[in-house]
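not sure who needs this but someone in the group chat was asking about FAD-dependent monooxygenase from Skermania pinensis so here u go. i didnt clean anything up, its just raw.
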Amino acid sequence: MRTEPEPAELAAIPPSAWRARLERLFARDAGPALELIATTEHIFAPWGTYDLRTVPHWHSARAVIIGDAAHATSPSSGQGASMAIEDAVTLARCLRDIPESATALQSYQRLRRDRVERVVQQGRRNGSGKAIGAIVRDAMLPLVLRRFATPQSQAWMFDHRIDFDAPVDVGPVGQTDRS
């Protein structure tokens, strides 16, 4: 069973070895990768990216979390900052429209949870491509993207809008946070 190297193991590999490896990996790349590698002053060692468990409650009586603290997304999703901004706007709306803070915080979580979990799941799928052989991936990806990654299929993620002026609906009475 293959295990990922520990951070100390990765840190022990000298930058020159990482540079050489990157040069080998991008030797046949048509883009500017080799030039960027050659002109980059310092090559940073890689690190592992891990999925974090779902946080069941995004608030307590005295605190609330938003963004990556509540729902870290994979770097491959490219949505971390967007999710944090959406959280902030939704939280502001809830605090503006719902007089009781506990209900406002529950509403914020209820309004955001399904969307952010979907984005986190999409990022996980995007990042799990390492399991596919690089040759097959590189050959198939352009075809798949042209066929399935259309503006219409990605609209749910990139065309999301929050109407700040719309009042917040508290939702069903007695609805609680997911645990």
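also The chain has two domains: 1-48, 53-170. if thats useful
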